[in-house]
Design brief:
Layout lengths: L22 H8 L25 E5 L4 H6 L6 H13 L6 E5 L6 E2 L8 E2 L4 H18 L3 E5 L1 H8 L5 H4 L4 E5 L2 E8 L2 H6 L3 H19 L1
Parallel strand pairs: 1-2, 1-5, 5-7
Antiparallel strand pairs: 3-4, 6-7
Helix pairs in contact: 3-8
C-alpha cells in the first residue's frame, strides 16, 4: 500500500490505490481506504465481487445495510432480486462482476440503536471513490457495463445523467479513459419500493434483456 495518504478532506482515494495490482491486492488495499470520511461510520469497505474474466460489470450506488455487515456487494434483498432478474433476462449472475460507485455504506439513524437508513452519497463522495472503480474497470475490461440507478449513472456519466431518459438503451462513452458500452436501468432497490412492484420488476428484466442481447 502507498505510504503517503491524502487527508480525508482531500476527498480522493487515489493515494490508496496500488499501481499494477491484481483484484485481490486491490480489495486488500481498499479495506484501508481513508479517502473520504465515509469509512468512519461504516463497518467495512465493500469491494466488488466476481472475476477478471467477467463479460459484464454491474455498477450500483453503494453498499446497503446487509452488504456493510457481510462485506460483499448485493447480498441483501435488492441483490437477490437482481440475481433473479438477471437470470430471467438470460445473464448468468455467477458470470458477472458486481460493484458499487461508492465502497462504504452511508446512512443515517432516526435514533441511536435504531435501524440504519440509507443516505445517498454526494457527487464529491462518488468522485473520491472513482479511482477504485477505474482500477476495477481496467482489470476486468468488461464488454458491457450495466448501470444500476441514477447515482451510479452520475458517477460514471456525469451529473446530468437521468436514468429515466436512457434506461434500456445501449450507450457508448469514454469512462476513466476507456471506451465503454453501457446499458442503464433502475437500481433493484427501487423495484422493492415501487407501488407496482411487478411492473417495476418487468421493466428491470426488460432492460437487462437489452444488455443480454448486446452481449450475444
Amino acid at each position: 500500500m502507498p505510504t503517503t495518504h491524502a487527508p480525508e478532506d482531500a476527498y480522493t482515494a487515489e493515494p490508496f490505490v496500488p499501481a499494477d495490482a491484481d483484484l485481490a491486492a486491490l480489495r486488500e488495499a481498499a479495506a484501508g481506504c481513508r479517502g473520504c470520511p465515509l469509512h468512519r461510520d461504516a463497518t467495512q469497505t465493500v469491494f466488488g465481487a466476481g472475476d477478471t474474466t467477467a463479460r459484464v460489470m454491474l455498477v450500483g450506488e453503494q453498499p446497503g445495510d446487509q452488504e456493510d455487515r457481510q462485506g460483499r456487494p448485493f447480498v441483501g434483498p435488492a441483490g437477490k432480486l437482481l440475481d433473479r432478474a438477471l437470470a430471467e433476462a438470460g445473464i448468468d449472475p455467477g458470470e458477472a462482476y458486481v460493484t458499487n460507485a461508492v465502497k462504504h455504506f452511508k446512512f443515517t439513524r432516526a435514533e441511536p440503536r435504531k435501524r440504519r437508513i440509507h443516505k445517498a452519497p454526494t457527487l464529491r463522495e462518488m468522485t473520491a471513490c472513482g479511482p477504485w472503480l477505474a482500477a476495477e474497470l481496467a482489470l476486468v475490461e468488461p464488454e458491457l457495463i450495466v448501470v444500476l440507478g441514477a447515482t451510479a449513472g452520475k458517477a460514471l456519466l456525469g451529473s446530468s445523467f437521468r436514468v429515466t431518459e436512457v434506461r434500456g438503451t445501449v450507450l457508448e462513452h469514454e469512462i476513466h479513459g476507456r471506451p465503454e458500452r453501457l446499458v442503464p436501468t433502475v437500481h433493484p432497490s427501487s423495484v422493492l419500493r415501487a407501488e407496482d412492484r411487478e411492473g417495476a420488476y418487468r421493466g428491470l428484466v426488460s432492460d437487462l434483456g437489452v444488455a443480454a442481447r448486446a452481449l450475444a
